[in-house]
Amino acid sequence: MLTVKNLRKEYTNTVAIDNISFSLQPGRIFGLIGPNGAGKTTTIRIILNIIKPTTGEVLFDGKPMDRSIQNVTGYLPEERGLYKKSTVLDVIVYLASLKNVSSHKAVQLATEWLTKLDILESKNKKIEELSKGNQQKIQFITSVIHDPKILILDEPFTGFDPINQQLIKETILSLANAGKIIVLSTHQMDLAEKLCNDIFLINKGKEVCSGNLSEIKRQYGTQSIKIEYQGDATFLNQNKDVAHVDMYQNYAEVQLHDSINPSLFLRSIVDKIEVKHFSIIEPTLNKIFIDAIKNLESQSVAGGRN
């Protein structure tokens, strides 16, 4: 288990992260989610022992994350750090050697990974000759080739088209199924929502909310429904049971007041429009983040008045 305890990082004029704590379990994907500048990269660099926290600690199986256990980690940084004039195979073998993988073993593993990610034909090309997406594949391979127990992926889908994005998603899921601890750091909340078991939402260096994604969705769930219909549904704008409605060409997304039962609401409108489909809508991770930020801001304002 990887444990982050009460991390705080101060610089001269700012606090990058402020007393954050979480734990990560093997076989689960942990989403470190937030906008650019939220404190995600600072947190990652502390976990990797690249920078030291002002206070707090990071533990792996109860031991401090120091240089003695760095070979159990794999890191895909947001910025590309490959040697552009070198060939794909040379880069992979060299970076694997830094994680104590022999040259012979590294060539074998590189061939397996290049085949898996459908880029074997490029093994003798220079990095600079590859597309951005294929460069990202190489960087991904260098982060996993030494079979790390902890894998930290910072914006791993950068540069990928939908087909390769799906390929990398499936690969990440297979690594989780193999028992890896995976940290997925991203501001692409739709992708995090599809992959993560647990999340930590961070903004301006502070925790917004955290925990099991399914439980958080239930916590922030609203009385929202989607109605596909035929007919004139403009009456929904004046319906007393409706808190808010977004109208589209042949469907509407409706947020009901908390006291309204969705099934009873459906019965009340079927004589006004022909309902083709009716379903409860789970809140998206993006909406949860926005709502959580609003709650924190309103609490802060209320606290300032007291």
Broad CATH class of the largest domain: Alpha Beta
Distance between the termini: 41 Å
**What's the structural domain tally?**
2
Q: How much β-strand is present in the residues?
A: 25-35%
Mean pLDDT: 89
Biggest sheet details: 6 strands, mixed
**The CATH homologous superfamily of the largest domain:** P-loop containing nucleotide triphosphate hydrolases
In the CATH scheme, what's the topology name of the largest domain? Rossmann fold
What is the alpha-carbon Rg in Å? 24 Å
Instruction: Based on the coordinates given, report the CATH architecture of the largest domain.
Output: 3-Layer(aba) Sandwich
Task: Name the helix and strand elements from N-terminus to C-terminus, one letter apiece.
Answer: EEEHEEEHHHEHEHEEHEEEHEH
Number of strands: 14
**Contiguous uncertain segments of 5+ residues:** none
Describe the structure using short key phrases:
4-stranded antiparallel sheet, Alpha-Beta Plaits, 306 residues, 34% helix, 6-stranded mixed sheet, globular, alpha/beta, Rossmann fold, 2 domains
